[in-house]
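Support reply, case 0932

Customer input (verbatim):
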Amino acid sequence: MKGLLRLGTIAGIGIFMHWTFVLLIAFIAVVNYKNGQSPVQIAWSILFILCVFVTVLLHELGHALVAKKYNINTKSITLLPIGGIARLERLPEKPTEELVVAIAGPIVNLILAAITKFFILIPQDSEELLAQLVSGINAQNFFLNFYIVNITLAVFNLIPAFPMDGGRILRALLSFKLDRNEATIIAARIGQFIAVCFILIGILSNPLLILIGFFVVFAAQIEAESVNFKNLLKGYTVGDVVMKEYQTIGAEEKIKKAIAIILNSEHKKFLVKQNDDVVGILTKKQIIKALSEKGDEEYIYNAMDRNLFYIDKSVPLEKIIDRVYEDKSTVLLVTENNRLIGILDTDILSEFVLINSIKAK
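Our regenerated output:
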């Protein structure tokens, strides 16, 4: 994702912050300044926001570390102005695993709230409590606000608005009785209904709810389509989709030869060979890059992708779908008994799914 600042690594997980987070800090500073707050009060507000996002990071780490217990690695955690996103290598598909991974985040918030409660005195009088909260962030009410934020984050994330934590918990519970695809559709529709409510409430009160509402609407739809996509692949293996007719080209050839082949055929990807061994992949994207930077006299061995990914024909398609679509330029080399028999990429897979979806109607 563009516009990300790498903050470091925790437990092998890359931690990133989106550049718009800086705009949020600036916005808070400007609003507080216009409201007549002193530089010290503004500093307390900014420090509080930073602490909230540390809390969000811990929330996402809760998901990631529990997922690791099920041999599911997390590629990265990204902090956004509206929260955090943990990119799991794959989503847990067993209901119990998804339930535990989903609930881990809110539990982290509840633990933080419980720890904070030891250091604060919560006013029993509602007017006194309100007076402390509306006075702005300061040394006296900092931890009280931190306690309330963690309780709020836990409760908010438990709202069954898929794909929020509550929505994933709902899907996990439904999956104990229903097919995962059906459970996802139900959870997604409930989530989208709640999202529309967010948007309507946001129009009347808080614009942030509008942003969250639209995010839930589109994310729920994407998740539902993704699960349906995988459902269409059930029962099929890589061998059912492999393209056995593919174009090869020599590593010592020049880019102009690849261009000539593209213009005179339907081939857009090449297996690059040297001494009858596959040494690289050449895609249309790499050809265009080499052409624009070096010209058509550039040698293919300088432009090709040397990273080769082999996969056996017996591997279920649903197991590799995320890997194929994560990098749409990836070409998998399909083998049988350690012998190359063909290739697989997003174009081939998409055509296969399209045909199967039409047959299913």
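We compared this against your earlier run and they match. Two observations from our side: The mean pLDDT is 85. The two ends are 36 Å apart (CA to CA). Please reopen the case if you see a mismatch on your end.
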